[in-house]
């Protein structure tokens, strides 16, 4: 009798050509591609559940996924049949609590008013973050940590929290952009009724900090690195994003 098995894995993926994590009829998604390839390597009754439900266009270097199925889960074989832009990089049998998640947004321009942006980031951290929650994601934390830095002509917005709501990080970046362009003052952020979302292509889920001991899957790490290096040769506009992604593998 074939036994039920389950493992937890970390996934790398380039989300640019996918309609997000979750399966959708007649659309390419990360979950759909993963489950289809698990069946190709002999798994039956496949079920997957991700710790983060990333949106269309969002990439990841550390998406934690529980895989359950009947049959042996052969991860090296799985990496061979997965599309070139998806790879399994780590595995463990058990995990504990998710302690935090970190997203990195690579804003492709330099801030015009960096001091205003810093002031706005502090307000978002302590007073606005929870208000940006919208139904459709997991319940967010009441506060977050925002780190601002620069890299090769781009501005980096790194946001960490225990949980995030729907498009929450992209809304934070849009708020900072609006302040930078002086469309709104930092002191006015709490009064905003609605906030649009920044472009998803520049967002990466770079870390899921979860209790547990992880084993590296070298075939997956090498596959991810080769894919990123090919991207760096062909897409200069996104080079900062992919150079930074390499650091988190």
Please give a structural write-up:
Keywords: Isomerase, tRNA processing. Belongs to the tRNA pseudouridine synthase TruA family. The protein has 249 residues and is an alpha+beta fold. The two termini are 37 Å apart. It contains six helices and nine strands; from the N terminus they run E-H-E-E-H-E-E-H-E-E-H-E-E-H-H. Strand 2 (44-50) and strand 3 form a beta hairpin. The chain has helices at residues 30-40, 75-81, 114-128, 168-180, 218-234, 239-247, and strands spanning 4-13, 44-50, 59-70, 86-92, 98-107, 145-151, 154-161, 203-210, 215-216. Strands 1, 2, 3, 4, 5, 6, 7, 8 and 9 form a nine-stranded mixed β-sheet that branches. The mean pLDDT is 91. It folds into two domains: 4-96 and 211-217, 2-Layer Sandwich (Alpha-Beta Plaits); 99-204, Alpha-Beta Plaits (2-Layer Sandwich).
CATH class category of the largest domain: Alpha Beta
Count of beta strands? 9
Individual helix count: 6
SSE sequence, one letter per element: EHEEHEEHEEHEEHH
Taking the sheet with the most strands, its summary is:
9 strands, mixed
CATH homologous group name of the largest domain: Pseudouridine synthase I, catalytic domain, C-terminal subdomain
Number of domains: 2
Helix share of residues? Answer: 25-40%
| Helix-strand category | alpha+beta
- In terms of DSSP E residues, the strand content is 25-35%
Q: Termini distance?
A: 37 Å
């Amino acid at each position: 009798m074939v036994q039920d098995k389950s493992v937890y894995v970390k996934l790398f993926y380039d989300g640019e050509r996918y309609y997000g994590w979750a399966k959708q009829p007649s659309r390419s998604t990360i979950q759909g591609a993963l489950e289809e390839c698990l069946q190709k390597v002999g798994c039956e009754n496949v079920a997957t559940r991700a710790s983060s439900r990333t949106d269309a266009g969002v990439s990841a270097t550390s998406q934690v996924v529980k895989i359950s199925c009947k049959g042996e889960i052969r991860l090296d074989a799985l990496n061979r049949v997965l599309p070139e832009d998806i790879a399994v990089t780590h595995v463990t049998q058990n995990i504990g609590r998710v302690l935090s998640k970190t997203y990195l947004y690579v804003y492709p321009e330099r801030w015009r008013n960096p001091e205003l942006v810093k002031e706005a980031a502090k307000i978002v951290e302590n007073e606005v973050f929870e208000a940006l929650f919208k139904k459709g994601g997991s319940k967010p934390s009441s506060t977050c940590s925002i780190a601002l830095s620069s890299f090769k002509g781009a501005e980096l917005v790194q946001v960490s929290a225990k949980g995030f709501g729907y498009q929450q990080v992209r809304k934070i970046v849009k708020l900072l952009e609006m302040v930078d362009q002086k469309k709104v003052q930092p002191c006015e952020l709490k009064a905003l009724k609605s906030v649009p979302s920044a472009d998803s292509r520049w967002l990466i889920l770079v870390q899921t900090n979860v209790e547990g001991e992880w084993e590296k899957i070298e075939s997956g790490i090498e596959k991810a690195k080769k894919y990123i290096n090919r991207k760096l040769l062909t897409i200069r506009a996104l080079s900062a994003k992919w150079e930074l992604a390499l650091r988190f593998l």
